[in-house]
Amino acid sequence: MNMLAPLRRVAAAAAALLLAAPLSMAWSMSPKVPTKAPPKAPPPAPRCSFTAQPDAQGQVVLHFTLRNDGASELRLLRWGSPFEGGWFGRFVRVHAGSNELPFQGAMRKRGEPAASDYLLLPAGQQLESTLTLNEAFVLPAAGSLKIGAAWRWHDVMTEDSPPRPRSTHQGLDQDCGEATLTR
């Protein structure tokens, strides 16, 4: 009689139990899935309007007004908006007749933002900015101009203090409407 046969059967049964134990434990344990807080809804976009008027020298002056009608103050990353203090991105489109005029302003390459790159807009308050359109577009001497203003706030915060890393930015599209100017 072969004396190893019973030992082989015991070894096979032990191996089967060892393999089955983790499976039965997995079925009996409820999985631990980390729960995340649902993402916060973005704050409402500030209300924006602008006007376009010629000045005495024939320049076209754009005047932007941004109003926060929300209940919380907003911190807006001002890059590429008229509130950056110059033409560092294309935030308006200009048509002379059926032709769109090319943007001639500067385009900036950006790293991580600094706290000073954010614009503070308290609840119930408004901010204004004035720029000369001729600094970023070659305008015809006369005729009708159709100007549309829209941009993306690359980061909008209602809590915490800026800045935050680009990888965690929460952007918001801003529409500022259109204006027609005949000169």
TrEMBL record:
Recorded superkingdom: Bacteria
Signal peptide range in chain numbering: 1-26
Q: Which Gene3D superfamilies match?
A: 2.60.40.2970
Q: Which keywords belong to this entry? A: Signal
Q: Where is this region: Disordered?
A: 158-183
Protein name (record): Copper chaperone PCu(A)C
Tell me which species this is from. Pelomonas nitida
